Every structure is written in C-alpha cells, then in structure tokens.
Amino acid sequence: MEIEVFSKELQLFSGTIENLALRDSLKSLSIIQERELPILQWDEMRIAVPIKLRIELPSLGNYNDIDIRECEPLILVFSLNDYPAKAPIVFSDRLDFPKDKLAHLYIAQSGRPPAFCYVRGDSDEWYANKRIDDLVVRVRNWLRDAAVGNLTEDGGQFEPLRLEGYNGIVVYDYDKLANIIHEKMSGDLIVCITFTLYGALGFIDSSDISMMG
Questions:
Q1: Distance between CA atoms of residues 5 and 101, nearest Å
Q2: In terms of C-beta density within 10 A (0-12 exposed, 13-18 middle, 19 or more buried), how is residue 49 classed?
Q3: Which terminus of the chain has fewer Cβ atoms in its 10 Å neighbourhood, N or C?
Q4: 4-58 pLDDT, tens per residue?
Q5: CA–CA separation, 195 vs 50, rounded Å?
C-alpha cells in the first residue's frame, strides 16, 4: 500500500539557490540518498527536500506497536538565506505518522505534519558545528529510539511539549497544579514552565509555585 505523503502537495522550487553552503549540503544529501532529490517550495524563504531513511527496528516488534516503519519518509526544510546558521527543520512526510503517541514533537501547524524536536536545547546551536550527514544520523537515531521506546529518558515524569508560533492564555487551577507537582517531583528537582500569560513567567518547584510578571 502506497504511503500518503505531505510533500505531494508542494510545488517544485523554481528559483535559484545562491547560498553556497546550502548548495553543498544539498549535494551531500543527494549522495547520502544515492539519487537526485527534488527541491520543493516550502514558503517564500524556505525550501523542502523529501528524503527516505532506513530505520533499524527491534526484532521483536516496536515498543507499544508504535507505527515507526523500516523506511520513513521525511521532509528537511532549509532557509534559503540563513542556512547553516539556521538549522534544518525535520518533518515527517507521512500523513499518518503516529504523532499522538510520541514525545519530542512540535505541534503541527496549518495542516502540516509535525516537526521533530531532535535535540534537547537549541537546534541552531547544535547544528553550528555539524554537517548535513550528522543531522541524518541524529534523525535516524531519533526514529530508532521511538521504535524501541527510548525516546523518553526522564523517567516518565514530565515531557516537554514544544510550541512554535503560538500565543494565548493559559488557564489552570493553582491548587490542582501545585498538588500535581508535589506528587510527581522529588524535593531537589526543579521544573521551569514558561508560557504566554499576560507576559508572566511561572517557576515551579516541589515546594512552592510563584509567579513573576
């Protein structure tokens, strides 16, 4: 059965890539993939490159039957002007990717597939001393970890939910949230939660919840 992919909805890029670093990385990516890769238009300032990665799956089956496949289609999105200072964004190209069962994903926007949070921290800083083949290895390992159940490494306490391009108001019950923190966290572990709440920043630890405007 043919996999339905998001990249079919994208148009071919008709412009000129003047960024020499980007051109070199696209050439390296074609060598890694052993084929010419289509260059697609993501938006006015970015291009998208669909690739496929072979994933090493566990011999006894995927963890919790999570639908990670031996060959995973992906989309790498590059900034035409700011690459490599701006790291590529990695999306699943599968419309049926099991985003509801996995951590370390950005919330999908505008009907687009979810992007991978492939490093803990700033991806631009991580990519600053890396090459495109390092990114391919990193994403392959991310998918392998998802298949074997090792994607979550924090003991199942709190998993980050990455939001990009969102703002709004967070409403919660103060006492209920405080009780959850007390039940989940040990006394010496601190969690920092940031969100848009009239410019507020909430710091949470196991003994107190305070708001700083």
A1: 19
A2: buried
A3: N
A4: 899 999 999 999 999 999 999 999 999 999 999 999 999 999 999 999 999 998 8
A5: 33
DSSP 162: B
Is 115 within 8 Å of 91 (Cβ atoms)? yes
**154-162 LR contacts (CB < 8 Å, sep 24+):** 157/184, 157/185, 158/184, 158/191, 159/103, 159/104, 160/103, 160/104, 160/117, 161/107, 162/104, 162/105, 162/106, 162/107, 162/117
Bond prior to 58 in cis (omega within 30° of 0): no
Domains identified in the chain and CATH numbers: 6-148 (3.10.110), 174-212 (no CATH)
Q: Exposed/middle/buried for 47, CB within 10 Å: 0-12, 13-18, 19+?
A: buried
